[in-house]
């Protein structure tokens, strides 16, 4: 069941936000600038309004997703930080003593609620609208320019994504203990998703077996992000099947995969 209004519990500790989150904090400014009710209007039809238990409000869920993207955190690490970071709680419109969601709730939201191909276009349109309303865009002159737009399909295979993130985990581990290089499994000889997942899981098992390493925040964050990559649906990482997307070059040694987009403002 979904309520129209997102509510914040009355708390005697709310004045802590005035002491801890400064006026010029990025998240406080975003909260002051944006009216996020457009998120509710866009997503309300994906919820049941008169049956079942109360759902976490889509505006709050979108704000979790905003934080995840802005700060490049896995679902698990985002929730852990939101539990103790007062700027996050302020942005989420939670009382200081309120608990946060379970990380699985965020995973469900991003996979089931906002996986519509039109949702990104909707957000871009809204961004331009807000810019006009706040007089960021004021000129009536039409300026035409072009930019490079990445295809919504990645130009990398799932294997390459897993390799990159497992490499980041190994680097974080070696920064604390170079002797761990001898304990890591041999890299796969086959260039398949199955082989790379098997190798990645072995790497994670080695790291998790060393409790002292897992206590380092950088190692834990890299480990959690790698776990999330393995567990997530890998469909969005598949090599593009978009016949219109091409490999283009900004320079001799810099390329992109997508389109040449022309903008008029």
Automatic annotation (TrEMBL):
Signal sequence interval, chain numbering: none
Pfam family for this entry, one: DUF772
Protein's organism: Halobacillus trueperi
Top-level taxon of the source organism: Bacteria
All copies of domain Transposase InsH N-terminal, residue ranges: 20-112
Protein name from the UniProt record: Transposase
InterPro entries: Transposase_InsH_N (IPR008490)
